[in-house]
Amino acid sequence: xxxxxxxxxxxxxxxxxxxxxxxxxxxxxxxxxxxxxxxxxxxxxxxxxxxxxxxxxxxxxxxxxxxxxxxxxxxxxxxxxxxxxxxxxxxxxxxxxxxxxxxxxxxxxxxxxxxxxxxxxxxxxxxxxxxxxxxxxxxxxxxxxxxxxxxxxxxxxxxxxxxxxxxxxxxxxxxxxxxxxxxxxxxxxxxxxxxxxxxxxxxxxxxxxxxxxxxxxxxxxxxxxxxxxxxxxxxxxxxxxxxxxxxxxxxxxxxxxxxxxxxxxxxxxxxxxxxxxxxxxxxxxxxxxxxxxxxxxxxxxxxxxxxxxxxxxxxxxxxxxxxxxxxxxxxxxxxxxxxxxxxxxxxxxxxxxxxxxxxxxxxxxxxxxxxxxxxxxxxxxxxxxxxxxxxxxxxxxxxxxxxxxxxxxxxxxxxxxxxxxxx
Length: 423
Hints:
Helix content is 31%, strand content 24%. 36% of the residues are buried. It is built from 12 helices and 19 strands. It is of the alpha/beta class. It has a 7-stranded mixed sheet with strand order 4-3-5-6-7-8-9, with helices on both faces. Strands 10-11-12-13 form a 4-stranded antiparallel sheet, with no helix packed on it. It has a 4-stranded mixed sheet with strand order 18-17-16-19. It starts with a helix and ends in a 17-residue tail after the last strand. It has 2 domains: 314 residues, 3-Layer(aba) Sandwich (Rossmann fold); 88 residues, GMP Synthetase, Chain A, domain 3, CATH 3.30.300.
């Protein structure tokens, strides 16, 4: 842990030297043992060692999910480890192989992010999470999970059950267990906070709430802070490398640059693709891997310490497209209404029409649906829209909430707007 703390104070040149050394180690293994990289070396006549990170970034092409899904990046002789599934929030869940040693290194980086907020390694924690999807047949994995939770002094709540009775039960168990940290999906934690406020239920033991997996808006943060009266931070990670970025004591999102190298490539519309190179796990090397996420600004390098990452706006298809072709992100939609809303989901069909479902947080008698439709239509440059109220919005199969689901794959301006069948 002390080594990880020291790295956070490295100079920019020390960070670059460390990353280059790690990249070259993985590259040397990959071009020998991994089919995709052997072919890449031959077909593109790439160097066997890179002299700078710039040479690496300009030489190695971006790795897409389709290539990873084809298993071409698995070593011929993988080191001991396990298979895992990603969450699938950018599409179909992806199988990734992780060496045991790499998994441990990544986990220590996560532990360090908690220590920054005075949460010790074995202090009590509560997880508001989905069921793990490790590729392990039989019931043995569930027993290992229960054993691991017990050893790590944590309690687990399922995000597959978020009804009023479920949330009240979670809050009651938290009051009994007295965790110092709550770690969970942003939307699920927000719903738990709303229930705590409604019932005036306090969980005095909490020192930190960590939100992940979904974008946390200011409304979500403020509600959780009010409900639990503690620090609220965001963590940006993925199954492929566990931790990508974490909030420091100033609430700045720092890239864990000893765990992953991050590039932000412009899309040409004010957004940037997040490209990662995992600095461990040579048996399944992900070098210049397009993880499918977008950010609103390029990363900011600092002279001392890890680089800063701007807020992650969502997945590559988590935006609406106006008739002019401009992108509208979920955060903008929160300003369209002034009513108590638990959550919403906006579905844009392939012809441009938008259906917005809204789940009220209480009686909906005073809601002006027509006004919301007019605001949304103006925001989308005249695109056809429909707003509906619903008692409950279903989660995805892995119980992450997606504010926006789009069937449009690019942001080309539209000459005309057509209607589409409603789902």
